[in-house]
Amino acid sequence: MKIIGNDWDEHLGTLFDTEEYQNLRNFLDEEYSHKTIYPLKENIYNALRLTSYKDTKVVILGQDPYHEPNQAHGLAFSVNKGVDIPPSLVNIYKELNDDLGCPIAGHGNLTCWASQGVLLLNAVLTVERAKANSHKDKGWEKVTDKVIEELNKKEDPIVFILWGNNARRKKEFITNPIHLIIESAHPSPLSAYHGFFGSKPFSRTNNFLIKNNKRPVDWKVI
Description:
Blueprint: H1 8-16, H2 19-34, E1 37-38, H3 46-50, E2 58-62, H4 87-100, H5 111-114, E3 118-122, E4 127-128, H6 140-152, E5 159-163, H7 165-168, E6 180-184, H8 201-211
Parallel strand pairs: 2-3, 2-5, 5-6
Antiparallel strand pairs: 1-4
């Protein structure tokens, strides 16, 4: 089954053919039919579409999409230009500024990261309006577990950045010693001061990429 439109279909194809995935699709069809669900159906897989398996060199893993209007567009922590920057992303920008001196961006669209091989993935890919984590344990975890498992198989090193407890649970699938795991508290205002600020994920990522003869990420958002 072709869902994504790039090489991710080859890596996730067996999962897309399972009864479990069909159950997830049926659940989503029902939810979208009579509730407000984010992101738009056509944007659910934007992260995988914008960052192919082959090109992925960094994974930033969050919890689930933003749950207020006009925010989620299929990339973890990102919002379209013209939308107020959510508090979690404000804190990400603060840490980026402290870590690498990057100026704090005036918008929240992180497509420029995705185009450089940074997979902006949430553990759960949909959410009901105003109800954070409402689609947890509905089947998405199997999909994103599979994404991490497939990336773990890569023979070239990847950086996995795990923010928050839901993301950190994926650590069990990252067993290949060539990869780097950077984990910390979530950047939300509730937890950012408990280990996110000062964790320097951006410089640590680039140092690892350079050490492994890969182009570092230009983290500046313009």
